[in-house]
Amino acid sequence: MCYQQLYTLFRRCGCCLCLLIPLYTAAQNKILEIHHINIENGDATMIVVHDTVANTFPVKILIDGGNSGTDRFLQNYFTNYFGAANMPVTFKYLILTHFHHDHYTGFNKLGNGTIFRADTVIDPGGYTLGTTFGPINPPENTPNRGAKGSTQASIYKNALKDAFNNNYLRSRSMVVTSFPRDIGKVLTIDTLNGVPATLKCVASSGYTYGSGGLPVDNGNSKLSNPNNFTLGFILEYGQFRYFTAGDMGGYDAGSCSRYIDQEATMDGGFDTLFHTKSYRFDRNAYQSSFIAHVCAFKTSHHGSGCSSSPDLMRFTACAMFLSAGYMSRWGLPEPDFQKRIDTLFDPLSDWPTAQRPLGVNNRGIYITNLYNFPSGTKKFCRSTAISLFANKDSTNFSYGNDYSTTGVHGNNQYQSKDVTCKDSYVLKVEPNNILTQSQFYVFRVNYYKNVNQPLSTFQCHRNTPP
C-alpha cells in the first residue's frame, strides 16, 4: 500500500496517527526531512537524512539555535526524536544565519557538548578568535558582519572556543567563508538513493544570488544591522527545493529603513535556477509564467512586515513555515504581513475542489507559537491568522502548543513554559520519482507525547509536461 492510500484510509477513519507512516519502497530507504522545531522564541531548523531501514540518521544539520533558554527545548526535541542513547547529537554542519540573539544564544551549549556537537560550523564571519583557534577562525580578515559590539555575540564566540578546546567542534567551513565570492557555492550534504542533496548559498553580507547566477551587492555597506548579513540557502534534492534565509529583509523604507532589500534581486536568481523546470502538477500541467517555483520555505524574520515582499513571493511555493514567539514587543507574525502573504502566496498547483485528490492541498501555512497579545497595534496576530487561513478549502493551516493553559506568560493565552507542550512541524520528501517531480508531506509532531499527525500532501511540480 502506498503512502497516499494509507493517508486516505486514516483520513476516512478519522484517526490521528501516532506512528510514522512509511513513505518509501524497499529501494528508497533514505528520506530527507526538515524539522521546524518549536523553541518558543527564535529559529531552529533541522535537516535530517533518515535511513529508515537501519533507523539511523547519517546526516544532521542544524540551522540556528534560538533565544536564551531555548537549549532546553532543543534537548527535549533531540532526546525524544533520536533517543536518549544517541545524545548528545553530532551535526555535520551547524549553521548560524546571523548574529542576533534569537538565533544563536541557544548555541551556548555547544561549548560543553551536552546537547549537540558539530563537525563544521558555518556563520557570516567578521570576527577572530585568536591564533590558538586557527581551524575555527575565518580563513581571511573579514569586515564586521554584525558580530562585533554585542555581549550576546560573545556567548556564541566563547562557545566556539570551548567546543574547540574540548574536541566538540572540528572546524569552520572552508566553502562558505567570504562574500561575494562564495555566493552560489554548493555544499553536498549527502546522496539519498543515488540522488545528491545540496545546499546552495544564495545570500550573505548583503549580497544575493542574482540573475544569471551573478552575485549582487544590495548596498550592505550603508547599514550594520545583523539581519543584513543573513546567510540564505536553497536546499535541493532532485526536483525538491526549499528556501531558508534567517531574517533577510525585503523592504528598505519607512519602518524597515534599518534593513536592505535583498529580495528584489534574489528573484532573478530563482528565475535563473528554476524557471525552465517548473510545470504544474495539477490538471493544467503547463509551465508557470511566474519567475520560478520552490516547494517550501521558512518565512524570513518570523513574519515581520519587512520581509516576504512581492518580489520574493513570485517563487510560488506550496508550503510556508513560520516560527513566531511570545514577545509582545515583536508582535509576530504581524497582521499586515499575514494579509500580504494571503494575497501573494499563490502556489503553482491549483487543484479545484472537485478534482483535488483526498489529502492534497494547494498551499500550507504552519506557525509555531501563534498568539494574540494584550496590547499594541500588532496584538491580533493569532485571530488575524485564523480569520485569513482557517477553514479555507485550498489551505492547510495549523498552529501549535495548545496542550496546556497553565504556566502561561503574562496574559497571553496558550503560552505554556513546559517544553513538552510544544508542537513542531516536519516536512518529509517523497523519494520516488524525485528526479522528475516533487511531492512532500507535512506532519505535526510532539515526540514527547507520541504525536505524529499527518496534515497534508503537497504535489509540488514536475520538471516536464506529463
Automatic annotation (TrEMBL):
The keyword Signal applies. Residues 1-27 form the signal peptide. The keyword Signal applies. It comes from the Bacteria. Transmembrane segments: none annotated. Keywords: Signal. Gene3D superfamilies: Ribonuclease Z/Hydroxyacylglutathione hydrolase-like (3.60.15.10). This is Metal-dependent hydrolase, beta-lactamase superfamily II. It comes from Chitinophaga hostae.
